[in-house]
Amino acid sequence: PWCAPCKKLSPIVENLEQEMNGTFKLEKINYDDNKDLAKSNGVVAIPVLILYKDGKEVWRQNGLADKATIEAAINQFK
Fold first, then answer.
1. pLDDT of residue 63
2. What is the pLDDT of residue 78?
3. pTM
4. CA 78, CA 8: separation in Å to the nearest integer?
5. Cβ(43)–Cβ(6) under 8 Å?
6. Which active-site residues does the annotation give?
7. What are phi and psi of 76, to 5 degrees?
8. What mean pLDDT comes out for the span 10-18?
9. With b meaning 16 or more CB within 10 Å and e meaning fewer, what string describes 24-50?
10. What is the pLDDT of residue 53?
């Protein structure tokens, strides 16, 4: 709730989730409430986007990313 880049990124991925209709499932996790989970996933700064396929990490973006970059990553690992 306090992270300005996260606030900027959130509507981008939410809109993509709607536009891509079921291609991926968005899970937003509050870093402050889930520090152990963040640590176990190697998150040291926010925002971070992690794309998983079949339970394995296939793509990671630290910091802001534009819609085209995120969409390309999702399409690459469909």
1. 95
2. 86
3. 0.90
4. 25
5. no
6. 3, 6
7. -65, -30
8. 95
9. beeeeeebeeeeeebeeeebeebbbbe
10. 95
Going along 13-71, which residue ranges are E strands? Answer: 48-53, 56-62
Nearest Cα residue to 9 out of 48, 37, 44, 35:
48
Token pair listed for 55: 């339970």
Ramachandran category for residue 21: left, alpha or beta (phi over 0 → left; psi -120 to 50 → alpha): left
Pair 44, 68: CB distance under 8 Å = no
Taking the CB of residue 78, how many other CB atoms lie within 10 A of it? 8
- Two tokens at 43? 């998150």
Q: Which of 76, 40, 31, 39 is closest to 58 using CA atoms? A: 76
